[in-house]
Design a protein that fits this description.
The chain is α/β, with parallel strands linked by helices. It has helices spanning about 20-30, 50-60, 80-90, 115-130, 165-180, 185-190, 205-215; strands spanning about 10-15, 35-45, 65-70, 95-105, 135-140, 140-145, 150-155, 160, 195-200. The structure holds zinc ion.
């Protein structure tokens, strides 16, 4: 089955917590759909003089638009108010209407990064309130069985995409050569070979469905 063919979205917004999340969790999809108009925003690390220019380089490689915010990303990971995150998302997004919005799962991707979960929750809220709009909202669908292994695509997610070898390699090269993560880093070892997503249509109640799908 040609999953790529079923991908009928033109304008897509990707909202992530950190520069590299776009590549780890959805980079293959971006590379496989270059004709789409991608907007990618990262909520953290805008003033990180190392990561920020790398992110902009990656955007260029993807042919995407995007920008970054400066949400606190210190190791303590003190909780940030939902309001603050929502405000930042609305500030960073150049517009509110897309065909598809892709972000972190409110349940996160692995054990455990608070900013990912907070980002997923804030985007869900804005989308349910129609403060940002799209025909569908997708969450990254990965798990690590409480750190038993590096995060992997959830096999029974709504959409699972097996990446062709060359696409995976491009993604791996972005992680190791553009972002310069060492080959034995969490990021390099994680770089998923399959990408998976939970998919919601406008009007669907996210909370209940997510609970159901993760049983
Ligand atoms: Zn991250």
């Amino acid at each position: 089955m040609n999953l790529n063919k079923e991908f009928d979205f033109k304008e897509i917004a990707v909202i992530v917590a950190h520069p590299d999340d776009e590549t780890l969790w959805v980079g293959g999809m971006i590379l496989m759909n270059p004709e789409c108009k991608w907007t990618i925003i990262s909520l953290c690390r805008g003033n990180d003089t190392d990561r920020s220019p790398k992110f902009l380089k990656v955007l260029k490689f993807y042919g995407a638009n995007g920008t970054m915010g400066n949400l606190d990303d210190s190791p303590e990971q003190n909780p940030i108010s939902k309001k603050k995150i929502e405000k930042l998302i609305l500030f960073l997004l150049p517009k509110i209407n897309y065909d598809l919005i892709i972000t972190h799962s409110p349940a996160g991707e692995y054990t455990r990064h608070k900013r990912h979960e907070e980002t997923g929750k804030a985007v869900s809220f804005l989308w349910e309130q129609k403060k940002i709009k799209s025909r569908q909202l997708w969450f990254f669908a990965y798990e690590d069985d409480s750190k038993s292994y590096y995060p992997q695509a959830i096999k029974n997610a709504d959409r699972v995409i097996e990446l062709p070898e060359n696409i995976w390699l491009k993604k791996y090269n972005i992680i190791t050569k553009t972002y310069r993560f060492l080959t034995n880093s969490f990021e390099a070892l994680t770089t998923p070979k399959n990408e998976a997503f939970w998919c919601f249509r406008q009007g669907e109640k996210i909370k209940a469905m997510l609970k159901e799908s993760q049983k």
